Amino acid sequence: MRATTGIIMLCTAALALGACTRDGGSMRGATPAGQSASAMIRTAAGADAGKATATDVEGGVRYTLDVRDMPAGTHGAHIHMVGQCDAPDFTTAGGHWNPTTMQHGSMNPRGPHAGDLPNLIVGTDGRGTLAVTVPGQTVAGLLDADGSSIIVHAGADDLKTDPSGNSGGRIACGVFRAG
Predict the structure, then answer these.
(1) Segments of 13-126 assigned E as strands
(2) Which one of 2.60.120.10, 3.40.1190.20, 2.30.40.10, 2.60.40.200 gives the CATH number of domain 31-178?
(3) 162 part of the active site
């Protein structure tokens, strides 16, 4: 009897843990119906520069950015409000995604924009990664009627100056697509 009770408790615990996980056992907080989008990032010359993904997770969107063949240093990275990346300056991407009409930057008392991400650090090998969860967002919001894009800027974002943190020109861009 005692062994049967132990097995039932063990099975119940396993079922409860299985209900909380989504991706092979790691607890990342992703919602079962979580939508995702990805963006292939390209330079103004059309060269492949990496990929960004956006995934619905509990309470927000998880962004991951993996770039290559980019200039070494610190670069502003932002979600922009239009899903267009026309070279050479990517101005067709519009301004930062800002549905709540805040000012730019996490260090700005009247900020941040929904599209403000932390700085991307690119090593001397031209590679850089960034992963951040931004609360209160959805991938469906990114994929609205005119879409959205991700921009990598030439310089560092000061995280406080409106509208773009003095991060310089737009050197790479990718349009988010569902899936």
Answers:
(1) 36-43, 48-57, 60-67, 73-75, 77-80, 120-122
(2) 2.60.40.200
(3) no
Structure confidence by residue, pLDDT tens digits, 25-53: 222 333 445 899 999 999 999 999 999 99
Which of 56, 62, 104, 157 is labelled catalytic? 104
Question: DSSP letter at 10?
Answer: H
CB 54 within 8 A of CB 36: yes
Residues 56, 7: Cα–Cα separation, whole Å = 36
Distances (CA, A) of 121 to 30, 71, 152, 153, 178: 26, 10, 11, 11, 26
| 75 is a catalytic site residue | no
In angstroms, the CA 147 to CA 93 distance is 9
Only one residue has tokens 């001397």, namely 124
Which one of 56, 96, 110, 158 is the catalytic residue?
96
What does the pLDDT look like over 50-69, one tens digit per residue? 999 999 999 999 999 999 99
- Among 42, 56, 62, 116, which one carries the catalytic annotation? 116
Residue 91 per-residue DSSP state: G
Annotated catalytic residue within 56, 75, 113, 157: 113
Closest CA to 171 of 140, 142, 128: 128
